[in-house]
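Reference record
================
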Amino acid sequence: MQGNLSELDIRSILQLIELGQRTGELFVEAYSEPPGTTGTYNQPYRHRELSTPHNSWFVFFANGRIAYAAESPDSQLSRLRDYLHRYGLDRALDDLAIADLAIAHAPEYGCLWRLLESHQLTPAQSRSILQSMIRETLFDLLGLRQGSFIFDRGPALAPQLMALEIDPLVAKIVKQVQEWKQFHPLIQSPSQCPLVGDPDSLRSTLPAKTFQTLTQWADGKTSLRQMSRYLNKDIVLVAKAIYPYVQQGLVQLSPPIFDAPARSTPTLGLRPEAALVPRVVCIDDDLTIRKTVEHMLKPDGYEITTIGNSLKALSLVFQLKPDLILCDIAMPEPDGYEICAMLRKSRAFRQTPIVMLTGKDGFIDRVRARMVGATDYLTKPFGKPELLTVVEQYVGPGASDPPKLDNFLADLLDD
């Protein structure tokens, strides 16, 4: 199995691997289109040289579960060192005999197992580190929109320390990705390094202990992701803690260093009048779904129009000129496939994102939806985080104000 992320997104790939209970390795490479190209530059990492060290990832699976995940192999094992820091084992790798356990694509996994074998790490500590590594990698992958992938079936990674179920894990991380977007554009990447820009002003707003802790981490050299690893805190919580002080100019952030351009928030489907409230149309004959979508999107600053009659919808969308269309598949004639196909024949809707609403077991639905020109799909039942993730992906955030988080930093760092 291989292809481009424009054809099949990361979440769908993971679902296919889980449903098929596959064992093997998934390799993903991010890429951005150089000016003037048409998206043909999609050759997998294994067949060409990369220009930057942090734009590819790999995930190992065992019977449809995730056993290990990481960015492109790190010869310096810097990520593992960061995680070992929390246990005071930063230097444990210096004299470690990696031997045959450090396989080509997973040297840190071999080292982690060796530390467990030598009793420098307990099984609980090893599992905690491994879970954090997997979550961190999936956080990056689920925010990725441009790239290529290849899944190779093969033997499981051995020896195997643990394996995580995909569906509940992905659901949690999708929510994290959604929460992360509230910090954009002030915080764009976990690779950014905070630096206290005005120590005197910051000192006057924080308790002495919190100020000392913050200045220790915000040294301009420690990234948000490293802080997350050292403190054993979720990256979203760390960003949430820093965000109010970045807003006030008391803490500055370096530009992202290693992120591929494809990780920035997509703007596909935005109207030229970018300041206007994004307009969404939901076509569904189920009143409950229409009301649910309306209640989920309105508070977050979206203009939402719901239409229950599929025939009527065809004429109304030309008047409304929405930025995004949510369209149910299972409706009386014309059904969702027909509506999507007809809209795609019109020049006015050739580029408009059309997201199909599918049933719980709708893999065939999703394939057919792609064939008639659908941009994406959303599986029912869905919650607000899943809906907002899809909507923001194509039309950006709504017009709501960012959350107020002024008192969060002290609570997090004093925990």
About this structure: The chain has three domains: 2-180, 184-260+404-413, 279-395. The chain has 15 helices and twelve strands.
